[in-house]
Specification:
Keywords: Isomerase. The structure is a single chain. 19% of the residues lie in helices and 36% in strands. It has helices spanning 30-40, 75-87, 131-135, 156-161, 166-169, 227-241; strands at residues 2-8, 17-24, 45-49, 60-61, 63-65, 70-71, 94-98, 101-107, 113-118, 123-124, 139-144, 149-153, 177-182, 209-215, 220-223, 245-250, 256-263, 266-271, 273-280. Strand 2, helix 1 and strand 3 (45-49) form a beta-alpha-beta unit. The relative contact order is 0.19.
């Protein structure tokens, strides 16, 4: 079976968020997929049937595994899977059957891949016990979505400088924690760093908001660029800004950008991806 590593939400190798994509030639046990994901050690590995000449109509099954657990929704690994299928001759609208319902992707005129995901709005809650101490930042607002906690802080610099205690954060009851703030001039190039010297990344350009995502509870201390987190960030920042179309920059060490467009109870996430290597599994 063929396997790929793809950097998602970037137009440059070794940036964005790496995901593995395994093209399944046969039905395999869940334990085998979990073992492959643990071997790959990316934040997620996507498993999708290999394209065939006799491909049946309808959504393709798609599943995502971290090195530790299966997850219900993953944006960057979906982008990686679509990128691989398009690079192997796929075209038009691709549909995937997942734990979060049917998700679809399409290639846009400007070379991006747009994904249609459910919006997962956050509602205000009191900060859970231990959250503030584990993050080491002062929240302006705390909310909870279907999967994660959303924490707005006072500035983009506070997002950049956050240094969580991952052992304590893993004890907080949530898949992950999103820390976010309005973008500042240090993020004007949209590539996730502070150099401000280029604006050639077609994933975005100048961002409207910034974020980081921490998920030690599911084996991912910090995820470089998190599509599913932007299903929360898009409706949150669209409500605050009054605009449906925004650009988010994730300020991890690798950095990456996501174009988001809120469409009712759905979010369109758009970005590019780069294949790093491909090979064959021998087990």
């Amino acid at each position: 079976m063929r396997i790929f590593t793809v950097d998602s939400f970037t137009d440059r190798p070794f940036r964005g968020n790496p995901a593995a994509v395994c093209l399944l030639d046969e039905t395999v046990p869940d334990e085998w997929m979990q073992a492959v994901a643990a071997e790959m050690r990316h934040s997620e590995t996507a498993f999708v049937p290999a394209p065939r000449d006799d491909q049946e109509d309808g959504p393709r099954p798609l599943r995502w595994f971290t090195p530790a657990v299966e997850v219900d929704l993953c944006g960057h690994a979906t982008l990686a899977a679509a990128h691989v299928l398009y690079s192997l001759g796929g075209s038009g609208r691709l549909e995937f059957s997942t734990r979060s319902g049917v998700l679809s992707t399409e290639q846009t005129a400007d070379g991006l891949i747009a994904m249609n995901f459910p919006a997962t709005r956050a509602t205000a809650v009191d900060a859970p016990e231990g959250l503030v101490e584990a993050l080491g930042v002062k929240p302006v607002w705390v909310g909870r979505s279907r999967f994660d906690l959303l924490v707005e802080v006072e500035s983009a610099q506070a997002v950049r400088s956050a240094a969580p205690d991952f052992e304590r954060l893993a004890a907080v009851d949530a898949r992950g924690v999103i820390v976010t703030a309005t973008a500042d001039d240090g993020d004007r190039d949209g590539d996730g760093d502070d150099d401000g010297d280029r604006d050639d990344n077609r994933n975005g350009g100048r961002p409207d908001y910034v974020s980081r995502f921490f998920a030690p509870r599911v084996g991912v201390p910090e995820d470089p660029v998190t599509g599913s987190a932007h299903c929360v960030l898009s409706p949150y920042w669209s409500a605050k800004s009054g605009r449906d179309a925004l650009v988010g920059a994730q300020l991890s060490e690798r950095g990456g950008t996501i174009r988001t467009t809120l469409r009712g109870d759905r979010v369109e996430l758009a970005g590019q991806a780069v294949t790093i290597w491909s090979g064959e599994l021998h087990v």
